[in-house]
Amino acid sequence: MKIKIILILSLVALTANAQEAAAPKWGSKVMKGIVSVLTYDKEGSLMKSGTGFYISNDGMALADYSLFKDAYSAVVVDVDGEKSDVKWIMGADDTYSVVKFKTASKKTTALTLAEAPASEGAMVFTLKYTKDKLKSCPTAQVSSVKTVADSCSFYTLSYATDDSYHGAPVFNAKGDVIGMTQPSMGNNGYALGIEFANTVSIQALASKVNTLALEAIHIPKGLPDSDGASLVYLYMQSKTMPNEEYLNLVNLFIETWPDNAEGYIRRASPLIDMHRFDEADQDFQTYLKMCSDKPLAHTRIADIINTKLVYQPEPKYEKWTFDLALEHVDKALAERPDVLDYKLLKGQILMAKKDFAGAIAHYDEMLNSEARSPEIYYVSSFAHEGAGDSVSVMIAMMDSALAMFPTPMPGEAAQYVLRRGQLHSAAGHYRDAVNDYNQYCFLCNNQVNVSFYYDRAKLEDKARMYQQALDDLTTAIGMQPNVPTLYIEKCALLLKVNELDECINTAKQLLAFDAQNVDALRIMGYAQTQNGKKAEGKANLQKAVDLGDESAKEILKTIE
To answer: Does 220 sit behind a cis peptide bond, omega within 30 degrees of 0 on the bond before it?
Structure first.
């Protein structure tokens, strides 16, 4: 009986120790690539700690996603006690709980990644960060290998580690990493194949799922894996990201791909916004030197300088002038005289400089060449307007522009028709203007806004097309029922055509949500006095007077 008990106890001890074995010979060596990860909240308080490991010698590492979720900063500590800040998040996947990140340290000891997946029955070892000398580690066999995420291995292991091992590296017998630990279930352990690390990255055009995973981490995000994808990503981020953050991202691009000229021209924009003009100018010179397409480089620099001078004139930067921008464009045109975009940019700069005579001469040269197009007539009309030429000249130019379109006109002709309508309005040709506005509306498939209906109604009023004007104002009110100006314009027009009852009703609609609108009170009061409701009218006029309306006071003097 005693012998039987001893045998049972021996078996229990053997089973208990089956998950723990002496550390492999290479154990101490790989510990140099395993780090402790500490993440912090917005106030700088410690949130979580766990294990991570380097996969490249320049600070790229992997860890469990749950460590980083909601974190605002993080540091890693290696076995020698050296600390390094987590500088960039390089990708995240909350489905398989993986985060890829890069530390500030540029020289790290990376683990060797297995060239091939482990096979069933293979022995594997799991190591987590520890300050103590490594004596043992969990070991087990691979029970099964499945494929997830298209081509990534997913291992079932013969032991279950505790939560402290989440994200820890799993090694084969050679000491190469075959995967990272996943949460255990029951008596089984699991590991996600290390090849999954290649799929975890910043995407230039990220899916909603990837975006949500990244947004839950408040540490700055890095760039996609290639310079081409990174440039797309930079463009997307430039629309919404604050200048400081965007500048850091462009700096990372330049650090990662220093021979890509595009980074230097991209960096100029946030530097200009931050008034760091000398640095931006230096980036221009670097870009111009590195860019293989010199004409393109000259025009891009010219465009940025012109944009700065037009939209951000203060503070001034003496080096950058319209003449310098023109000099860059002329250098580009000297090599490629037939590039339309370069010619158009030169015209824009001349216009911004208010050299309207120069712009007209430049556009005339284009109109007398193969470059002639509706667009050239269009922009030239503005040059003539700036020069103070007669409206008839500009209308003639728009007639020439529209004559170049086929019949029936395509939708792209809409802006040209509208421009001509505006010019007809300025010339007092109100019915011609209305006709152009009608054609514009047709070319836009009636997809126009409230301002359009309001503007057309004003033209129709001047053209004595009163019913059309009332219809447009009614449509505008239906689109934006809380804009007082629309009601006042309609009331004034109804009063003009002696539609007194409708005028009074429209004024009441406005007063229902703007009870102290003096214009409505005045117009309604006057309409009531003309419609046999003198007492009510005078009362409403008096309300307008009490609210400080001088016009209502003068009207009251005329009413007996």
So the answer is: no
Would you say the CATH fold of 112-199 matches that of 29-103?
yes
> If we measure between CA atoms, which residue out of 304, 111, 128, 259 comes closest to residue 194?
111
State the Cα–Cα distance between residues 519 and 507, nearest whole angstrom: 9
- R_g of the chain computed on alpha carbons: 37
Give me the residue spans of the domains in the chain: 29-103, 112-199, 262-446, 482-557
Average pLDDT of the residues in 151-177? 95
State how far the Cα of 140 lies from the Cα of 157, in Å rounded to an integer.
Answer: 6
464-518 pLDDT tens trace: 999 999 999 999 999 999 999 999 999 999 999 999 999 999 999 999 999 999 9
Q: What is the mean pLDDT of the chain?
A: 93
The dotted CATH code for 482-557 is 1.25.40.10
Structure confidence by residue, pLDDT tens digits, 203-260: 887 666 678 899 999 999 999 989 999 999 999 999 989 999 999 999 999 999 999 9
Backbone conformation region of residue 464, classed left if phi is above 0, alpha if psi is from -120 to 50, else beta: left
- Cβ contact 152:207 at 8 Å: no
Beta bridge partners of 60: 102
Paired with 64 in beta bridges are 98
- How would you label 54-80 residue by residue, b for 16+ Cβ within 10 Å and e otherwise? bbeeebbbbbbbbbbbebebbbbbbbe
pTM for the model stands at: 0.80
Question: Which residues does 249 contact at the CB level (< 8 Å), separation at least 6?
Answer: 220, 221, 223, 234, 237, 241
Q: Are 334 and 298 in contact (CB under 8 A)?
A: no
Query: Letter for the amino acid at 32?
Result: K
CA 50 vs CA 67, 128, 164, 221, 309: distances in Å: 7, 8, 7, 21, 52
CA distance 533 to 25: 106
Q: What is the pLDDT of residues 421-440, one digit of tens each?
A: 999 999 999 999 999 999 99
Fold of 112-199: Thrombin, subunit H (2.40.10)
Determine how many CB atoms are found less than 10 A away from the CB of residue 337. Answer: 10
User: Topology of domain 29-103, per CATH?
Assistant: Thrombin, subunit H (2.40.10)
Q: Are 237 and 268 in contact (CB under 8 A)?
A: no
Return the CATH number of the domain spanning residue range 262-446.
1.25.40.10
Cβ–Cβ under 8 Å, residues 109 and 33: yes
What is d(CA 48, CA 37) in angstroms, rounded to the nearest whole number?
8
Residues 284, 268 contacting (CB under 8 angstroms): yes
SS (H, E, C) 116-164: CCCCCCCEEEECCCCCCCCCEEEEEEEEEEEEECCCEEEEEECCCCCHH
Token pair listed for 374: 């509706």
Shortest CA distance to 63 belongs to which of 152, 129, 155?
129
